[in-house]
Amino acid sequence: MTTIAIDSSAVPAWDGDVARARDVQVELAGRVSLRDGFDKSLRTIAGFDVGFEEDGAITRAAAVLLDARTMQPLESHVARIDTVMPYIPGLLSFRELPALLRALTLLGTTPDMVFVDGHGIAHPRRLGIAAHFGVATGLPSIGVAKKILVGTASEPHQVRGAYVPLRHKGEQIGWLLRSKPKCNPLIVSPGHRVAMASAADLVMRYVTTYRLPEPTRLADRLASRRDAGKA
DNA sequence: GCGACAG
DNA sequence: ATCTTGTCGC
User: Fold this and answer.
1) Closest nucleotide (CA of A144 to C1')?
2) C1' of B1 to CA of A221 (Å)
3) What is the strand order of the sheet A141-145 is part of?
């Protein structure tokens, strides 16, 4: 088990107050660092994603630790908890973060960089689940989403690795990255301790022949119950 | 007021 | 996210 200090104050219990939750997001967004604050020579990275069981009553979070050099999975874990609240656009992290943090504690090694399925700062109040995850754990994080929540962008070229900025209210909040030709682009945004200029490159480093980068792709497979097994 | 809306 | 087989296109 890792001994990562999770900031409980950054993960308030859901009390049904939407307006209040949004205020909390604005405050937590103020703690996000958009400068590279990680070891240049990454040793281990991790992917996180969430799925549901029992008609949504159970939230299932998957955490996969990989060797940053070989991209080979070193550990895979699944955490199940009772679902805490329904899905509300813009408040995704309040619903899924508790399970993700539980999965994080199952890792035997603290990852140097975390990739979360969802947005980083590409969010109405700049606190998508990846950013929230970073602030709550202090770990460098990046958001890898499949669809835009807010903002507009042009179409990135069809070549693998092409990317264009995603903007919202006059500022850049992320990138549209063509990880694979003829596939819809990924929406990549910094979570915490990662610079905008580094985000797309960091994700592309772990893309092989699939649309999703290995960390998120493997976690996705574990989170959705269509998994073949372990090792 | 009318849509849009990560997973 | 989830319910679900085959099928069209590269």
Assistant:
1) B6
2) 42
3) A73-82, A58-67, A44-53, A113-117, A141-145, A186-192, A171-177, A163-168
Single-letter code of the amino acid located at A125: R
Q: Is A55 annotated as a binding residue?
A: no
Chain C nucleotides close to protein (CB under 7 A) are: 1-3, 10
The amino acid at A109: T
Give me the CA A55–C1' C5 separation in Å, rounded.
Answer: 22
Nucleotide in closest CA–C1' contact with A146: B6
Spell out the domains of chain A, with CATH numbers in brackets: 36-223 (3.30.2170.10)
List pLDDT tens digits, range A26-47. 999 999 999 999 999 999 999 9
pLDDT in tens, A90-135: 999 999 999 999 999 999 999 999 999 999 999 999 999 999 999 9
